[in-house]
Amino acid sequence: MGMTTDEFDNIQLSRFFQKMIGFFDHQKQLQEAEWKRMAYVGYLMLVNNPYIKQTQKPKSFDAYLNKGKPATVKSAKQFEQLFL
User: Fold this and answer.
1) Structural domains of the chain, count
2) Rounded to whole angstroms, how far apart are CA atoms 49 and 20?
3) What range does the domain containing 65 cover?
C-alpha cells in the first residue's frame, strides 16, 4: 500500500481501512484492464487468422465479448469444467 513503518504505526484504524479499500479497488481495476487487453489479443488472433472462415469470425470486439452479457453456466458439469 506504499506506507512506511511510521505511517503504519501512526495511522487511525478507519483511515487504514479506507486506504486498504482504495488499494484493492485499484488492484481490481488493473486486473480488469489486463483481462480486457488479453481478450482483445484473442479477438485480434481470430480476426486476422486466414484459416478461419469469414462467417465464423466475430463481427466486432463487443460481439466477441458476448455483447456485454455475463457468461452463464447452464449445468453443474459445465461449472466444474470452467472453474474446478
Assistant:
1) 1
2) 44
3) 5-83
Which grid cell is 30? 488493473
Could you identify the residue written with the cell 487511525? 12
The pLDDT of 18-31, averaged and rounded, is 92
Q: How confident is the model at residue 23 (pLDDT cuts 50, 70, 90)?
A: very high
User: In which residue are the cell numbers 472462415 written?
Assistant: 53
Q: Name the grid cell of 84.
A: 474446478
d(CA 15, CA 79): 39
| 80 and 59 Cβ atoms separated by less than 8 Å | no
Q: How many CB atoms lie within 10 A of CB 58?
A: 13
Global pTM? 0.57
